């Protein structure tokens, strides 16, 4: 109805209406308007918006480009947006690359984006790799996106390692048990990590993606073994582990890192976001390091509160898990009251 009200306005206004609505218009409606508004100039912005259409982007973009009298050049950003499309990403990307006649080249960013596509990541990544002039260098971002695409992690790792060539792939459904499938997935991720020149940087993103996997502990262990020792683990990653992972994962973190470099007054706040398990986590850390309790002071959180009552005497209130516990340091260990 809104479009009908604009029927008799000038060319500039028609162009504004089309640009604003083309990302949502059905193909038939868009073509009807374009046939009726022959004086409307097709712009780069209009094409870019059409690429995001959630139903028939290929037909819509084709129709617009055919009416543009070749005045619109296919850009890198257009192809990247096509890769993000969830309706027809492979066909749309192929169409735009063909239309660009080699002027737009496949980049690492495009492949990283394809790996994270929620519809057809395997087919899209294979296609882009097949169009590359040279073999792609594996990046941390590619490892992250492959890991984050939980259902396709095993296949995506194989696609990257084979550079998209038509090689026989080992599919997850070939395995009878979850344990076997997880073990095979981990094997391919490790092979992918072998391709990184400097090891992996532990970021919040990589930790979140590991958390999505069935065998989260194996993933965290693998990433920690292969992490870059010259770079610290991101504070946000440590907080995420403390908030979401079980105690044994936190222990793995301790086994691989210097305590003071990981558990600071800031990162330890991650425990405060736990609704359950905060007590178990804090008591475990306190047993290992005397000064943990001091790092919790003056930091009232949703899950706990710590008070200093006197010299070497503290109490901790676990709000969801049993109230107050009193701690007193005596000789070389904590006594629980």
UniProtKB/TrEMBL annotation:
Pfam families linked to this entry: DUF7104 (PF23397)
Organism domain of life: Eukaryota
Protein name: HEAT repeat domain-containing protein
